[in-house]
Structure formats: structure tokens, C-alpha cells
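so my prof wants the structure for this chain in the C-alpha cells format not the other one, which i didnt know existed until like an hour ago. anyway here's the sequence
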Amino acid sequence: MSDPPRADMKIVLVTPEIPGNTGTIGRTCVALDLELILIRPYGFDISEKSVRRAGLDYWKHVRLSEYDDWAGFMAARAPRRDQLFFFEDDGTGGTVYDPAYPPDAYLVFGRETKGLQPGILTGMEDRVFRLPMRSEHIRSLNLANAATAVVYQAMRAYLA
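here's what i got, hopefully its the right format
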């Protein structure tokens, strides 16, 4: 039996606002050996203690890339359309369980209070997915919790 292909997925945070979420997601990236891509502007200073505290002593091991804006990220990385997966509470492309994630997927999340800017999603409506929630009492999940749930689902075929 051959080993599954090695995943080289990336988590992309567009204009993150809460340093603790970014630190926690960075820690998840270290655990899964994934790159964390941050797109400015941030709602915090990346060197803040709260980012490092959430990432614990793992932050120094985060494979971190930063871009000034979405256009700069797209120009530098030039991802294929089928590599991009966007996540919003009201995703119209289905749930996180629907896609077959390629090993080089970009898992894209927006800011905590407003999500992804509409211009980023123009023409990508079928690439916007959601985590199912059963209770009408919850509008959204914490970004770090959502990103962790998504990345483990996306990597399911690649984890032994």
C-alpha cells in the first residue's frame, strides 16, 4: 500500500483582526506543517505578545508569508481557481464536506467581524463554503476554531 500524497496546503487569513486567533491558527499550521499566509492590514501588530502567547513557543516555527493586499497575493502566488477555497458563514458552494481538496489548496478566511471583502468573492461564489451549524442561537464560529475544523477536513485524505 502506498503512502497518500503529501499535502502542501496553505491557510490564508485576509485582514485578521484578533491576534489570539492568528496565533492559534499559526500553532495549527505548525502541527500540520502548513504555511500561514497573512494579508494586510491587520488589526494588531504581528509582534504583539498576544499572537505569540496564543502560538506559544511554536510561533517561531510558523512558515509565515505576508502580503500587503489581496491583489499582491494573487499576483505573487497566481493560484489556480481550483486551488482556492473560501469560507464564510453563508457559503453558497456547499459545506466544507463537499469539495475534494487538492493537496496544494489555499484555504482562505476573512476577518473576524466582517468576513471576506465582497470583491474577493466576485466570480467565486461556487468556491465559498460553510461549516454547518445546527443551532439558530449561533451566528458564527470563532475564526481559529473554524480554520482548524476546515483544515482537518481538507487534509483528511492526506493524514495518516
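also thought this was worth mentioning. The two ends are 12 Å apart (CA to CA).
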